[in-house]
Automatic annotation (TrEMBL):
<dbReference type="InterPro" id="IPR038375">
    <property type="entry name" value="NDUFAF7_sf"/>
</dbReference>
<dbReference type="GO" id="GO:0032981">
    <property type="term" value="P:mitochondrial respiratory chain complex I assembly"/>
</dbReference>
<dbReference type="GO" id="GO:0032259">
    <property type="term" value="P:methylation"/>
</dbReference>
<feature type="compositionally biased region" description="Polar residues">
    <location>
        <begin position="290"/>
        <end position="302"/>
    </location>
</feature>
<protein>
    <recommendedName>
        <fullName>Protein arginine methyltransferase NDUFAF7</fullName>
        <ecNumber>2.1.1.320</ecNumber>
    </recommendedName>
</protein>
<comment type="function">
    <text>Arginine methyltransferase involved in the assembly or stability of mitochondrial NADH:ubiquinone oxidoreductase complex (complex I).</text>
</comment>
<dbReference type="GO" id="GO:0005739">
    <property type="term" value="C:mitochondrion"/>
</dbReference>
<feature type="region of interest" description="Disordered">
    <location>
        <begin position="290"/>
        <end position="310"/>
    </location>
</feature>
<dbReference type="Pfam" id="PF02636">
    <property type="entry name" value="Methyltransf_28"/>
</dbReference>
<dbReference type="GO" id="GO:0035243">
    <property type="term" value="F:protein-arginine omega-N symmetric methyltransferase activity"/>
</dbReference>
<dbReference type="InterPro" id="IPR003788">
    <property type="entry name" value="NDUFAF7"/>
</dbReference>
<keyword id="KW-0808">Transferase</keyword>
<keyword id="KW-0489">Methyltransferase</keyword>
<keyword id="KW-0496">Mitochondrion</keyword>
<dbReference type="InterPro" id="IPR029063">
    <property type="entry name" value="SAM-dependent_MTases_sf"/>
</dbReference>
<comment type="similarity">
    <text>Belongs to the NDUFAF7 family.</text>
</comment>
Amino acid sequence: MRRRLWIPVQFCTRPARLGKCGFRRGSYGSFRYSSTEARQWSTPLARNLAEAIKTTGPIPLASYMRQCLTSPHGGYYTSSQDGHDQFGRKGDFITSPEISQIFGELIGVWIVAEWMAQGQKSRGVELIEVGPGRGTLMDDVLRTMRNFKPLASSIETIYMVEASSSLREAQERLLCGDTSVGEDKEGFKSTSKTLGVPMVWAEDIRFVPKGKLSKPNRMATANIKTHSNFFKDPSKSPFIIAHEFFDALPIHAFQSVPPSQPTLITSTTIPPPRTSTTPQWRELLVTPTPLNSTHTTLSTPRSQRHTGAPPEFQLSLAKASTPHSLLLPETSQRYKALKSRPGATIEICPEGQSYASEFARRIGGDAGKSASGAALILDYGPASTIPVNSLRGIRAHKTVSPFSYPGLVDLSADVDFTALAEAALSASSTVEVHGPIEQGSFLQAMGIRERAEQLLMGVQKGDDEKKERLEGGWRRLVERGVGGMGKVYKAMAIVPLSGGKKRPVGFGGDVEV
Ligand code: SAH
């Protein structure tokens, strides 16, 4: 699925809040940046990457992705790009909350239902959204929650985890209106115009406050392998939303190679590289394409040739093991099972796994009775298999090579839901994971049809365009066929351990009032 791309924009249900500016949109060829060599690069970031690779050697795909998406010097999300808006019809892609307001409303209802199922805590509730884009989803969630007064008044703080300063500003404008913004040690702060509670922005979830490990617990967990040494604050119930966030996190790619290849990178040729008698994982690394390459010499897929210039970077198999190839594919039985099949490739997203672990620790902690809160992850990717060759580039609603125009193209990769579930379960023994299930099933169970019917009844007679947009929008979110998002997108929940007694609503559970 080329997410974000195949969703015809006419299905938007809101009056479009679209991009303001056409920076380089659709015209790729007119900006070239030269390096110390004669070669002209498409963007300053392309030149910097090429120069770094010249100095340090080929780089992991994850490093390339990270630079392209969040480098402060020309990253897709983090550079201002002269006001270029990534979202909407005039941007590069459109996401579910931008397609239909019902999407965010149902996520709001899901949180209300989980909060009720967990005993309706009257204080200490936190909302955390990671990767909030333009803030549309949180806006719809908060508008929905406002109608559930006991929950609305139990919310202490809303945290927004966002790497991009321009998107942080856009979110603040939408969600806080004219309230003044200040910065303190917790970060960039404002007040929600809908609920009147503090909103705090952070660049990484690690900067969102969390409980400190108490002394006895610190001693008890000293020997336990944890990714970060924090303890769940039992007075807090974090409700975490991640929509199309995990697909933007950098991945490493590996391929299994047959035995008898050198196993270690050596800085000298003495002693000679060791050889192996068993298959090994080799990392796919990013290198510049040869000067004067063409689409034909690079075998660029036809669907990606419309950008004109051929890709400036490519993937090549490392000639020897790298620290990542020795470590990451050994972390799960799922990867190990494929190692003996030469040619097998896998993608691993360590940052995604560490986010899932972080969610689990915030919800679970180390004492069963303090577990509270929930995380809802919605994204696209296979339910159980390991993603393969899934990196894609999107620009102006078209698939493009992920190796062209670095920093101007959105990069994303399929989410490995099983890897996230494994990470969550091993990070906390007091959480359980439900799903992944297809987004279509989740939204149907949450009542998308009924809510659409309700909205349709409110449409003025004769406003057929609005009717069509509403109708088309919700159907697109649940449809399973080509262009639909119901099957490829999945929903997965991390909730406090109940031994299977309480299934979350949308995942087979009912609301307990
Ligand atoms: N959830 C939104 C936006 C999805 S796009 C929606 O559905 O419309 C991905 C979002 O994640 C953007 O807001 C982007 O700036 C943010 N993002 C990408 N990588 C990030 C990272 N490493 N840390 C924090 N935010 C990141």
